[in-house]
Specification:
Layout lengths: L10 H11 L8 H6 L3 E9 L5 E7 L11 H8 L11 E3 L6
């Protein structure tokens, strides 16, 4: 898996997210945000249990300024649609979130 851009989050961005949305970023996802913080990918395919293939476009970061890969912007847009306590971490080329 190779990212096209590289950004790093800091602890204040996670605190801001928690205060704004009343939801905490899971501990297991924090190291990724601190080291990479999302970005577009150069081809990562995932497969459903029905053997369908999806191209992951990128992973969401937090406060990284990338409109379609910024967790603040995407969570705000999706919060009425997402199941409670669900935080998307990636999206595919079709606009589906994982």
């Amino acid at each position: 898996m190779k990212f096209k851009e590289k950004y790093k989050a800091d602890n204040s961005a996670l605190i801001d997210f928690k205060h704004k949305f009343s939801i905490e970023i899971p501990e297991v996802y924090r190291p990724f945000l601190f080291n990479q913080n999302g970005g577009r990918l150069d081809g990562l395919y995932v497969y459903s249990n029905k053997k369908e293939e999806y191209l992951v476009d990128g992973f969401l970061g937090i406060g990284n300024g990338e409109k379609y890969f910024d967790l603040f912007q995407q969570y705000e847009r999706l919060k009425g649609i997402l199941p409670k306590r669900y935080i998307p971490i990636a999206s595919d080329m079709g606009g589906n979130y994982y």
